[in-house]
Amino acid sequence: MALKQLDSTSFEEIIYDNSEACLVIFSRKTCHVCQGVVPVLEELQLKYESKFGFYYVDVEENKSLLQRFSLKAVPQILFFKDGEYQAKLTGKVEEEQVEEKIESVFEG
What is the rounded distance in angstroms from the CA atom of residue 42 to the CA atom of residue 14? Predict the structure, then answer.
């Protein structure tokens, strides 16, 4: 299942207005590392979709969101809960790393 793509407006709604518990990968289509991480998140989305959201931000199309969080490189996975930034993972990550972070942020 593909990750739902966010723009600045939908990002505000989901993260801050709805205070949805979610993770958001900041990525770009031309990033080879990103292309390896996105399928990992798509797999995990099937396991956790009833508990929290999985989203995608294309930094080429939404530079303001990249700058807002002072992100220097992609991929970056940011975790949000109750309208607050909680944690992040950077670079090439394995499924186990993402699951450990999920447990500490959302289930801890």
Answer: 19
Q: Could you give the 3-state DSSP secondary structure of residue 12?
A: helix
Q: Is residue 28 within 8 Å of residue 20, measured between CB atoms?
A: no
Per DSSP, the three-state class of 55 is strand
Q: Are 80 and 21 in contact (CB under 8 A)?
A: yes
User: Closest Cα partner for 98 from 79, 70, 84, 74?
Assistant: 79
Edge-first strand order for the sheet with 53-58 is 4-5, 53-58, 22-27, 76-81, 84-90
| pLDDT per residue of the chain (108 residues) written in tens, 0 to 9 | 699 999 999 999 999 999 999 999 999 999 999 999 999 999 999 999 889 999 999 999 999 998 888 888 899 999 999 999 999 999 999 999 999 999 999 976
pTM of this structure: 0.94
